[in-house]
Write a structure and sequence with these properties.
Chain lengths: 552, 552
């Protein structure tokens, strides 16, 4: 059996792992990654699945653990070249179908809704869906069995003994499989640096109740992750308890509610939801607005409210705004910006103790390891520091260090029933999605964008008579994102730069045979050298310098 | 008396406040701000001091509270136009002088070293330096007195009963001034959202001792803020206690030690410091390296060690790396990147509980307010959320809300002995420093850089015969940071775009009188419209399109 992570390790997002045995490959999850700061202009990153494309005849299907973007977001793109059946639980599949619909791919995709406890046969593999808890309903762990043995992939999970919807994680099944013998455990490492247990989602409901009681005289606005259906359920519950009408703002929040309610994952009593336009019909203190934007996303509903650009909701001293979320690393400043704006408008802002994580902390991880008793431990889902932290936990639990594998994307881990070893590497990587363009923006484009962002560009254009190689027009200097902004501005430094440029160009033309298209590069280099050293000497800047030579 | 914050409010950094009475203005601090993410290519931001320049005859001096960049960093730039005497305590002045030396401004600046308890006369003002504690030695609060009364500016401070160097904060003097009557208190708000007390710097020494004991078999590398001389002192103390030699890495760390030691602010026993080149002469477990880079700064010594590009220090399994620092908001991802790299090299990494803040938490703030009993409260040093949090504390302490002022930069707060009111506004703002250029990069340049970073640039150049207005050469399409990267690459989409461009240009030339330089803008707009709509339709992107027309 081969385990080949094609994404998701040593990074946040883009979870996708291939399992291979004989002529069968199954793929667990197919997520996207959000772009890093330095990936200018990129919308999202999807995994390079060359390995799957090259072995397309073996690939039996995608098995999806839950409906978060970092586990399903790349499906519409990847299904174009790897069009195999998709297996997922009910809500997960409903969310996938929404996504496929946007890309007009519902019809062309073979979809199978699975239930917990169900086992599907995929070539040489059988895969069982095991109930877990997470910050989205219908999350599953997978028991993946082939002739070499059983491997458990936890997906993203937490241990919640008192979940809001449905059952607690099926610990008994983990124990049963552990009894039968588990070859390897791929376990969620996100919170493996955090001591203790992750608290139940239900504790958040209690916190929300308390806030509704304390702020009974004001309107309440709660921002949270759209996909957290249980959170929405608890806000609705509190609203009903305290006689508030509920307004839902933000497209993704509306979408998830429209998806989850018909499936029975979310129960909203009649006469609870009201349209935002009808808000004014109710006393402010009898309303609550559930909204997107808890991460300070600039286009989300909460940010527009904070900016005063939301068309329907105006924030004022009568408002209490709750961030029912923790900042995702990298979003701290954006969130603080939104908090500052809300406070300036006079709102009360609550941003502590109204959230719990959806991932297992150290004691939860120990529980799963202890039930499963895997022969090999493979920490997954996290940056290196998180994987390493889980490896430490595995060691504390007595798993010998040569049975703990911290893999990198593309590593091939080979297991028989007894032994495991690293054996080779497949191509992996991130493919940039930029508008409609998939994979066309590469590292040289990004490198240029970085340079343009930091220093701007200076363009020098001139025309030569081709036959004679003498100047017909120019050189003209134009810049964007550089200190001398506009062509038509009078600037003595710019004039000096132009004089230096003209002299260098004239010297080069006089001393170089440019006839019949010869020596164009020499002229280009002259322009780059002259302006490059001029700008560095005068203002310690290195803009991109782009000479354009037209031949007449 | 007028209090006019020229920077530092509703932002992090760039602290500068003017106090005006009659014909006298004094200025407290003159800091810089580090650029925000969207300020592409900007090195730093300094305050707009137009108000000081316009009232230069009144300005009696800069009084500096302590030696951090956000309080002194703009001095070399501002002194060029506002060349007045500078007053500061010993270490603060030494750091300022280092800075002035870099700018060759030592000789041209009138400098006065002040001691705690000393009162200086500046026009209609007298200013007393009061001993405080902070994450840098020699920090001072200021009691600023004029005929209208006494105002206390705390500067950045903490209450440390057991400081590492020098005395505890002079609480008795705060109490005495409180007895005599204080008109207004400008108090540090940085940690006003945090409950409890800020712990003593000395607790960090205990933590470092414990780590040295636990990791007695490995080399220790500690990253911290260069300016925290007390922290360096405690690391040196632990090193001596456990018989380790100390190496100092990172230019700013070396600088501060060379500045602090001759003043007696830092005591390093003989035979403790060794040169990095001599590291190999000692067993690894008998060495400690103090380094910069605790915020993940890409060029700092620790980042170079993590990258494997540091010339003298190679990280391996025998190393324990300590982050003696908290992440400054916005730096989380960079720090995590460094931690991941260090762990991959096999080092042990410790990043919790080896740091304390230099700013007062809620109970410390209450202590100062209670001692000073100000008539008016003016929270300073922080974003709006922090100022607001301190305003809440002031309210809890019984200060009526009409005596609490949350000011914005540029606000003029007028106080007599009895009343306070907002009365007008002066010009303020951030001036961008970009290399040697101060104030030349404005918002339009930054806007262009943003656009270039997100979408790249497409340049279309062509040459026209001036008299006839007919095409001589081109149109040629060149791009940078856009999908079609290189001119010489064969790309069918690019070819299609070029064909569309050529057709539009030809149509325009045929239908427009371009002779004698006419209608150049029409041709430019044709190019922009044609390519703009082509790219949007085909790939949903809007690159910057720059037409360049050369006239022959």
């Amino acid at each position: 059996m081969k385990i080949i992570p094609l994404g998701g390790l040593e990074q946040i997002g883009m979870n996708i792992t291939a399992f291979e045995y004989g002529d069968s490959i199954i793929v667990v999850d197919c997520g996207l990654a959000f772009p890093e700061d330095e990936m200018f202009g990129i919308d999202m990153v999807i995994p390079d699945v060359t390995y799957l494309e090259e072995n397309i005849d073996k690939v039996k299907g995608f098995v999806i653990t839950h409906g978060h973007e970092d586990h399903i977001g790349a499906l519409p793109y990847i299904l174009r070249s790897v069009n195999v059946p998709v297996y997922a639980t009910r809500l997960t599949m409903a969310i996938i179908e929404n996504k496929l619909e946007e890309h007009k791919q519902v019809e062309s995709t073979d979809r199978h809704v699975c239930t917990f406890g169900q086992t599907i046969e995929l070539g040489d593999f059988s895969v069982e869906f095991i109930k877990t808890n997470h910050s989205i309903v219908d999350a599953a762990a997978l028991a993946i069995t082939c002739a070499a043995g059983t491997v458990i992939h936890t997906g993203d999970f937490k241990v919640d003994y008192t979940p809001v919807f449905g059952d607690a994680i099926d610990l008994a099944r983990f124990a049963e499989l552990g009894e039968q013998g588990v070859l390897a455990l791929l376990c969620d490492s996100t919170n493996s640096e955090e001591p203790g247990f992750t608290e139940s989602e239900r504790t958040v409901g209690t916190a929300i109740d308390r806030i509704f009681e304390q702020y009974s005289g004001t309107r309440v606005i709660i921002a949270t992750f759209a996909s957290n259906v249980d959170r929405v359920q608890q806000i609705v519950n509190s609203a009903c308890k305290y006689g508030r009408k509920v307004v839902v703002e933000g497209r993704s929040m509306v979408n998830i509610i429209e998806t989850a309610e018909p499936l029975g994952c979310l129960k909203i009593p009649d006469n609870t939801l009201v349209n935002v336009d009808d808000l004014k019909l109710y006393p402010e203190a009898k309303t609550v607005i559930i909204t997107t934007g808890s991460q300070g996303e600039s286009m989300a509903a909460l940010s527009r409210m904070a900016d005063g650009t939301h068309k329907k909701v105006t924030i004022g001293p009568g408002d209490t705004v709750i961030f029912s979320s923790d900042p995702i690393p990298g979003n701290e400043k954006a969130i603080t910006g939104v908090i500052n704006k809300l406070l300036k408008k006079g709102a009360e802002v609550i941003f502590q103790d109204v959230h719990v994580s959806g991932h297992p902390k150290q004691e939860d991880v120990k529980l799963i390891y202890t039930l499963v008793r895997p022969r090999f431990a493979i920490p997954v889902h996290g940056e290196y520091r998180h994987l390493k932290a889980q490896a430490k936990i595995a060691a504390e639990l007595g798993i010998p260090s040569d049975r703990v594998f911290i893999l990198r994307n593309g590593d091939i881990l080979e297991l028989d029933g007894e032994n495991a070893r690293m054996n080779g590497h497949v191509q992996t990587g991130g493919v940039f999605v930029d508008g409609f363009s998939v994979g066309e923006v590469g590292s040289s484009v990004l490198h240029d964008r970085q340079k343009l962002a930091d220093e701007g560009i200076v363009i020098v254009s001139l025309a030569l008579y081709y036959d004679e190689g003498i100047l017909a027009a120019g050189p003209e200097m134009t810049s964007r994102g550089f200190i001398y902004e506009k062509l038509d501005e009078v600037d003595e430094n710019k004039a000096e730069a132009e004089a230096a440029l003209r002299e260098a160009v004239m010297d080069c033309i006089a001393s170089t045979d440019l006839s019949n298209g010869q020596n164009r590069n020499r002229l280009r280099n002259t322009i780059k050298d002259c302006l490059g050293s001029y700008f560095w000497k005068r203002i310690k800047r290195r803009p991109m310098i782009l000479p354009i030579i037209l031949d007449i």
